[in-house]
Amino acid sequence: MNIMFFLTPKHEVSYLYHDQTIAEGLESMQEAGYTAIPLISREGKYIGTVTEGDFLRALSDPNIWQQRDIMYMEQMERRVQNKPVRADAQINDLLDTALHQNFVPVIDDRDCFVGIVTRQRIMDYCISEIKKKTEKMQKHEKAMEAQNELNELWV
């Protein structure tokens, strides 16, 4: 299975640019309603992930608070580093990474951000597959029971 099956493409993802001010970044993140959001360059390269905690720590510093309208996102300390995977990565690499992150940024061979894979999307797929297999097993069990009943009638 290809990891692109799980991808939410860049045009459907909220993200921040490295050269936005901290004030602009905070406003964008609040509008998006997420607790963590990718940070990319204007060239499209994935830089990292910004979290609510990063904003809280930064804005509790009086110097940064005063400069929030002129200080850029790339200057803000980020503690969480959501590890990206390449678009051609193996599914196991994606799953290993998703165990530790709510979303996994996906990059191409030029390190450009192409989208994210959410842990929720992976879980939804797994649950769907388990349900399908369970239903198939239940049908098989019912068929076996019916076969056994027929066999008993003929004995």
From TrEMBL:
PROSITE patterns: CBS
InterPro entries: CBS_dom, CBS_dom_sf, Diverse_CBS-Domain
Bilayer-spanning residue ranges: none
Span of domain CBS: 7-70
Keyword entries, A-Z: CBS domain
Keyword rRNA-binding: no
Domain of life: Bacteria
Name the UniProt record assigns to this protein: CBS domain-containing protein
Gene source species: Candidatus Butyricicoccus avistercoris
